[in-house]
Write a structure and sequence with these properties.
The complex is a heterodimer of chains A (260) and B (295).
Chain A lengths: L8 E10 L2 E11 L4 E5 L6 H8 L7 E7 L5 E3 L5 H10 L1 E4 L3 H4 L6 H11 L5 H14 L16 H13 L5 E5 L7 H18 L2 E6 L2 H7 L2 E6 L2 E7 H6 L4 H8 L5
Parallel strand pairs in A: 3-8, 3-9, 6-7, 7-8
Antiparallel strand pairs in A: 1-2, 1-4, 4-5, 9-10
Helix pairs in contact in A: 4-5, 4-6, 5-6, 6-7
Chain B lengths: L16 H16 L5 E2 L13 H10 L5 E6 L6 H13 L3 E2 L8 E5 L12 E5 L13 H9 L4 H14 L10 E3 L3 E3 L9 H4 L5 E6 L4 E5 L5 E3 L26 E5 L6 E5 L2 H9 L7 H4 L4
Helix pairs in contact in B: 1-2
Chain lengths: 260, 295
C-alpha cells in the first residue's frame, strides 16, 4: 500500500476494562496524517483512558492499535519492543499533559527541557541545542531571556507553552493532547489555542485532542468523536457534529453550552 | 607493622566463606559486563554506612593471605578511615599492609586514584556512596534500570547542559559521569574529574563497591572509558597554577591547606605517598623548609 491510502493511526475495537468496570470499549477509527481529531465527552466517559491506550501508556484489554512508522510500515503497537516504543514516544510522538508539571522536568531550565529530546536522540553540540531551544521558545512565545529559568518560576500558560515546545522539537508526526487548555483562564486559553492551531497547520502533524470543552474541539479539530460511558456514540466532521448533532446525548451536550 | 595472628573468633577477612562467594560471583559478573551495576546482598559491617562498607566487602572477598594492602582516603594514608580499614584487615586477615602504591597488590580507595601509575596485577577497590549516575535526575530505580538497559542516556547530557547554561562551562568537578567501553554510563565514585583519564586503559583491575546501595561494578584492565561532554565543550581536567609546596610536583592533584588567617595557603599533593616518595628522592618544593617539623 502506498503512504496515501494507509492511515497514520488505526484503532480497531479498542477496549480497556478496569476489572468489571469499563474504561472504554469497542472504539474503532482511523487518523490520517495532518488531521486533528477531538475526543469529547463528560468526565468519566473514557476519553483519557482511550488516549492512554492509543499512546501505548496503558495496555489494551482487547483490540489493536496500528501506527504507520516512518518507514511506511504499519505496526501493532502492542508488539513493539519497549525500546522501539520509547524511541517512538520521544521522536515521532508528543504527549501534552493537562498538568504541565507531569510533562516537564521542573528542576531543570527551560532550555534543557526543550533540548532534552534532542540530546536523547544523540545531539552533542551545546551551541546547536541552545540555538534550537531559543528558536522554539520564540515560536511558543516564551521570552528568550527566560531560557535559563526553571519552569517553577513560569506561569501556568507559559508552562503549557513550554511543554508544547518540548514535545514538538523533534518534529513529531503525531501529538496526543490531554485537555491542553484545562486549568488556564480564558484569555490564556485563547492564545494557547491560536498557537496550537498555527503550529499544527505549519508542521502538518496529526493530533488527538481530548477535551470536555466543545469550543476547543470547534477551534482545533477537523473531526470529532463523542464518547459516553466508554463508547463512541457519534463521530463526524466537527462542524457537522456541533451544528447538527444526531445522537440524543450529543444534542444534550451541545445544548448545554452556555451562550453569552 | 607486624601482622598479628588472626583471632580465632573471626573467619579470614571477617566475612564468612559463603558471603565471600556471593560477592565474588557479583564481581565476576561486573567484570564481564564493564560498567554495569550488579546487585549483591550487602552485609552489615562493623562500621557505619558511608565509611566504605561496600569497598571493605569487595576487599574482603578478593584478599588472600599473601596480598599486600594499601588503603587511602582522599589520597592520604594517615586519615582515620584509611588507618582503621588497614588495621581491620591486618587484624582479621593478618595480611601485610603498606602505604607505598608500588608495593601494594590491593588498594582500597576513597575519592582518589594514586598518582603513581598502576601496574598489571594490582586491584583498585573504590568505596562508592551512590552508584547510580542518573539518581539525581531520575529518582525511580525501576526507571533508571530501564534507561541503562535501553541505553537512554540523553538525560545525563541534560545535567551537563544545565552546568554550561548556569556556569558557562561544565562545572561538575567530581563523580563526573563516564561511558565504559561505549556502553554503560557509570559514576566513577566521587573521585575528582582530574582522575577520570586514569580510569581508561588502566593495566590494573578497578572494582567499585557500594554497601548501602548494594551494588558492585567494575572496569576490567585496558577498558575504554570516556568522560561525557559536548562537541563544543570538551571534557577538561582542572589545572593548578603552582606546583606542590612540599615536593614541587607539577601535574599532580593538589589540596589547598589554609595556613593562618592572613591569607597564607599551601598547595600540597593530595596523594601523600607520592609526595613522600618524591621528597625522599630529593625533590623539594618552595615551602618545604618552612613546613619541616621543629621538634
Amino acid at each position: 500500500m502506498s503512504e496515501d491510502d494507509t492511515p497514520l493511526l488505526r484503532a480497531e475495537a479498542v477496549t480497556r476494562l478496569y476489572g468489571a468496570r469499563i474504561g472504554c470499549r469497542d472504539v474503532s477509527f482511523a487518523l490520517w496524517p495532518g488531521e486533528v481529531l477531538a475526543i469529547v465527552g463528560e468526565s468519566g466517559s473514557g476519553k483519557t483512558t482511550l488516549l492512554n491506550c492509543l499512546a501505548g501508556r496503558l495496555p489494551l484489554t482487547a483490540g489493536i492499535v496500528r501506527y504507520r512508522m516512518r518507514d511506511g510500515e504499519s505496526r501493532d503497537l502492542a508488539r513493539l519492543g519497549e525500546a522501539e516504543r520509547r524511541f517512538l514516544m520521544r521522536t515521532d510522538w508528543g504527549f501534552v499533559h493537562q498538568n504541565p508539571a507531569d510533562g516537564l522536568r521542573m528542576t531543570v531550565s527551560a532550555g534543557a527541557n526543550v533540548g532534552e529530546r534532542l540530546m536523547a536522540v544523540g545531539e552533542r553540540h551545546y551551541g546547536r541545542i541552545r540555538g534550537t531551544a531559543e528558536s522554539w521558545l520564540r515560536r511558543v512565545e516564551v521570552p528568550a531571556d527566560r531560557i535559563d529559568d526553571d519552569p517553577r518560576s513560569f506561569s501556568g500558560g507559559m508552562r503549557q507553552r513550554l511543554q508544547i515546545a518540548r514535545n514538538l522539537v523533534t518534529a513529531p508526526r503525531l501529538v496526543f493532547m490531554d485537555e491542553p487548555t484545562g486549568g488556564l483562564d480564558v484569555s490564556v486559553q485563547a492564545r494557547l489555542l491560536d498557537l496550537i492551531r498555527a503550529l499544527v497547520a505549519d508542521l502538518g502533524m496529526a493530533a488527538l485532542v481530548v477535551t470536555h470543552d466543545l469550543a476547543v474541539a470547534r477551534l482545533l479539530s477537523h473531526r470529532m468523536m463523542v464518547m459516553k460511558e466508554g463508547a463512541v456514540v457519534e463521530e463526524g466532521l466537527t462542524d457537522r457534529v456541533l451544528d447538527d448533532p444526531r445522537h440524543p446525548y450529543t444534542q444534550l451536550l451541545v445544548s448545554s453550552i452556555l451562550q453569552v | 607493622m607486624s601482622a598479628p595472628a588472626v583471632p580465632a573468633a573471626y573467619n579470614f577477612a571477617y566475612l564468612d566463606e559463603q558471603t565471600k562467594r556471593m560477592i565474588r560471583r557479583a564481581i565476576l559478573k561486573a567484570v564481564a559486563i564493564p560498567g554495569y551495576q550488579v546487585p549483591f546482598a550487602s552485609r552489615e559491617m562493623p562500621m557505619p554506612y558511608g565509611w566504605g562498607t561496600g569497598g571493605v566487602q569487595v576487599t574482603a572477598a578478593i584478599i588472600g593471605a599473601d596480598d599486600v594492602l594499601k588503603v587511602i582516603d582522599q589520597g592520604a594514608d594517615d586519615t582515620t578511615n584509611a588507618v582503621s580499614i588497614r588495621a581491620f584487615f591486618a587484624k582479621t586477615a593478618g595480611v601485610a599492609t603498606t602505604t607505598r602504591t608500588a608495593d601494594a597488590t590491593i588498594i582500597q580507595t576513597r575519592h582518589r586514584i594514586p598518582e603513581t601509575a598502576l601496574k598489571a596485577g594490582q586491584i583498585l577497590v573504590f568505596q562508592v556512596p551512590i552508584p547510580e549516575p542518573l539518581r539525581f535526575l531520575e529518582p525511580r530505580e525501576t526507571e533508571t534500570r530501564t534507561m541503562h538497559a535501553l541505553e537512554e542516556y540523553g538525560l545525563m547530557h541534560v545535567k551537563l547542559y544545565e552546568d554550561i547554561a548556569r556556569h558557562g562551562h561544565i562545572a561538575t568537578t567530581y563523580a563526573y559521569p563516564v561511558k565504559v567501553e561505549g556502553r554503560y554510563v557509570m559514576d566513577p565514585s566521587p573521585i575528582p574529574k582530574f582522575d577520570n583519564p586514569k580510569l581508561g586503559d588502566s593495566p590494573a583491575l578497578q572494582l567499585f563497591g557500594a554497601g548501602r546501595e548494594k551494588r558492585i561494578y567494575a572496569i576490567p584492565p585496558h577498558t575504554r572509558v570516556e568522560s561525557l561532554d559536548f562537541e563544543d565543550h570538551p571534557f577538561e581536567v582542572q589545572r593548578f597554577a603552582e606546583p606542590c609546596g612540599l615536593c614541587g610536583a607539577t601535574g599532580a592533584y593538589l589540596d589547598e591547606v589554609i595556613l593562618d588567617d592572613r591569607g597564607n595557603r599551601l598547595f600540597v599533593c593530595s596523594d601523600t605517598d607520592f609526595c613522600e616518595e618524591r621528597r625522599r628522592a630529593g625533590h623539594c618544593g618552595a615551602k618545604a623548609a618552612a613546613m619541616e617539623p621543629t621538634s
